[in-house]
């Protein structure tokens, strides 16, 4: 499909521009675009990958690395990452982004912060001017189960739509989604006015007791690669 081709194009271009032989510790994100990142890294050959370790951002990311026959590394052993490449749900033109559609935003932010270079890869649907205008599912938040009801109340006080609830697992399991860290996920929809200033919103959300991490990555990415429908690539830096 055009979307899969766009994901592959973004991923391949980002790897070709940012993963060189001297890069030894690589962070691999989550979602459906990063498999193409791993595919392109594997294509660099056994020699290039022999001395590298790959740090995952969760269960899916870990399996991606293992299934590709790449060496799995632990963040405790490799706390400083050369390059982390990850997907995104929406990216504005200041490289702020919404992440967490896959519920992995905590470990994703750890690896993004730990990296010298953090790069985003996405298809054309994720390009945006104001966050929240193309991704309509809200800002993903990870929160500790204990006391979550009060956190929902405080999110509404900060402007979140009152319909805010825990992300439910749906047919897959009765009850809420539980993150790789054993916490709940909430998707909070804020008004556009608040989404125009994501750094301020992020700071307020992080101040709420019980919030573990917020799916707003502000001013962290060095570049974002978008595959377009016409086979071109848009690079935002
Ligand atoms: O959850 C995340 O932040 C992931 O990176 C994810 O949302 C990216 O999604 P996609 O690569 O499947 O579009």
From TrEMBL:
Sorted alphabetically, the keyword list is: Isomerase
**GO process annotations (BP):** D-ribose metabolic process; pentose-phosphate shunt, non-oxidative branch
Q: Molecular function terms in GO for this entry?
A: ribose-5-phosphate isomerase activity
Please indicate if the UniProt record lists Nucleotide-binding as a keyword.
no
Q: Which reaction does it catalyse?
A: aldehydo-D-ribose 5-phosphate = D-ribulose 5-phosphate
Transmembrane feature ranges: none
Q: What is its EC number?
A: 5.3.1.6
| Range of residues in the leader sequence | none
Q: In which pathway does it act?
A: Carbohydrate degradation; pentose phosphate pathway; D-ribose 5-phosphate from D-ribulose 5-phosphate (non-oxidative stage): step 1/1
Cite a GO CC annotation.
cytoplasm
- Keyword Isomerase (UniProt): yes
Q: Which Pfam family, any one of them, does this sequence belong to?
A: Rib_5-P_isom_A
PANTHER family, per the entry:
RIBOSE-5-PHOSPHATE ISOMERASE
**What family does the entry list?**
Belongs to the ribose 5-phosphate isomerase family.
What's the protein called, per UniProt? Answer: Ribose-5-phosphate isomerase
